[in-house]
Amino acid sequence: MKRLLATLALTIMASTALAADMITYDTDQSFDDVVFGLENAILDAGLVIDSVSHAGEMLERTKADVGSDVTLFLNADVYSFCSAKLSREVMEADPMNIVFCPYDIFVMVRPETPDVTTIGFRTYPEGAMKTIETLLHNIAKAAIGLE
After folding, report:
1. Tens digit of each residue's pLDDT (9 = 90 or more) over 43-67
2. Residues 52/42, Cβ–Cβ less than 8 Å
């Protein structure tokens, strides 16, 4: 039992550490302009947007339902997409890389900084997944005109 609890605690700590590692860019461009740039950058890379999660709208709409009055975002969307070529590459290197697919880039504006739009994505582990991190890096930079 102690071993199980110790393993569970380490798993939770590792998950929390991984979730905290991200790459972000701040810009004075509007949320809509960054989203437009992101959509174009994804399409220009030859990729298809699988889904857009309107996380900010959902959190705002449900805040009272969960007993909160905190506005987390003025706007926040998460774009999910995949690359058949790169996904095959990284999963041939390690089939467990399936856990990372699809790939996500978020765009958000926080209430305390309404003139700053942030675009970003999580980092990936060393090895084959760094190829995906480079892809996301290039797409995010292109979205805000840094490439």
Report:
1. 999 999 999 999 999 999 999 999 9
2. no
